[in-house]
Design brief:
Length: 328
């Protein structure tokens, strides 16, 4: 039996949700472990963020195609005809009637994660290639256990953020097909995602342009107070929290429905809806917690307070500019 066949057999739980969740999370930790070993030995953080994006892409793709992968493996083991890989386009036209077909919400949610992960991973990798290092790891990478822990923390981050997407991708197509074509949560969630992504991208581009202009000595400003940075001190982080809220909204609308409850194995449970909302909400909640309390806002605010805390113009900007949620 091949390694893939053994892994599929080992994770073939009765619950479709567990059949998707366990291998996807296992893959997240495997990828991070694989990148961690050479990174720890070399004391290099160069591929840390890029590996995070790769983990998001890999786990999302696995969860989307896992039912087909299992069906093809089973057919191959018995000498049967292997089912074709599902068409992404057919998920929108409703023409993919096979049991392994995809629902449009599964494709849209997976694509939303892929777009965000590709954009952010590319952006951060280009930045570290240009700067040569990441100040977050100046001390951590000197300690192998701490540096290794950072990679496993990243695997945990991926697993928790992807929870609502993994849940929706685990629901069989036949069940999802019985949902209304479009629900209010779909509209609100997609709008939040697009708005949040646009906010984050715009804020990052404004910051990049400001840095480039400073290097070219087109201005002598020490901190950015223009554009979206005049509306929020951390507009990029607000955008990221918002886009994950959008993903959770679309997924949550599915998961609290009768179809979703049945698909993820919560039907009949008095706590089914609460559990579904918790699984959907853990994604934006965890992202916001990290940004507001751990690695995002606190590190940035401490850095700038230390540098410019005694300056009146900096204190005025802090006083008149919200930390997170932008002012109108």
């Amino acid at each position: 039996m091949s390694l893939l066949g053994a892994a599929l057999r080992l994770t073939h739980f009765r619950s479709p949700f567990l059949r998707t969740l366990v291998p996807s999370i296992g893959l997240a930790y495997a990828i991070q472990a694989g990148v961690a070993v050479p990174s720890v030995l070399a004391q290099s953080e160069r591929y840390y963020d890029l590996s995070g994006s790769l983990t998001y892409l890999s786990c999302t793709a696995l969860s989307l195609y896992l039912p087909t992968l299992r069906a093809r493996a089973a057919a191959g083991a018995t000498g049967g005809v292997r089912p074709p890989w599902p068409s992404l386009l057919a998920s929108f036209t409703g023409s993919g009637g096979a049991a392994a077909a995809l629902n449009w919400r599964q494709v849209v949610l997976s694509a939303a994660v892929a777009v965000w992960a590709t954009r952010l991973g590319t952006f951060l990798f280009q930045r570290i290639m240009k700067d040569g290092s990441d100040s977050r790891f100046d001390e951590i990478k000197k300690s192998p256990p701490a540096f290794l822990g950072a990679f496993f923390a990243q695997a945990t981050w991926v697993s928790l953020c992807l929870m609502p997407v993994l849940a929706v991708n685990s629901i069989p197509h036949g069940l999802l097909a019985s949902l209304p074509t479009l629900m209010l949560t779909d509209i609100v969630g997609i709008a939040l995602y697009l708005g949040g992504l646009g906010f984050e991208v715009t804020a990052d581009r404004q910051k990049d342009q400001w840095v480039a202009e400073k290097r070219e000595k087109k201005h002598d400003e020490d901190f950015l107070t223009r554009g979206l940075w005049s509306k929020s001190r951390h507009p990029n982080y607000f955008g990221e929290s918002t886009l994950w809220t959008g993903i959770a909204t679309v997924a949550g609308g599915v998961m609290v429905s009768n179809v979703g409850q049945l698909g993820i194995g919560l039907a009949g449970s008095p706590w089914g809806v609460v559990a579904a909302l918790a699984m959907a909400g853990v994604s934006p909640a965890f992202v916001s917690f990290l940004l507001l309390k751990v690695s995002g806002v606190p590190m940035s605010e401490t850095k700038y307070d230390k540098k410019y805390g005694d300056r009146a113009d900096y204190q005025e900007w802090k006083k008149n500019t919200p930390m997170f949620i932008p002012k109108l």
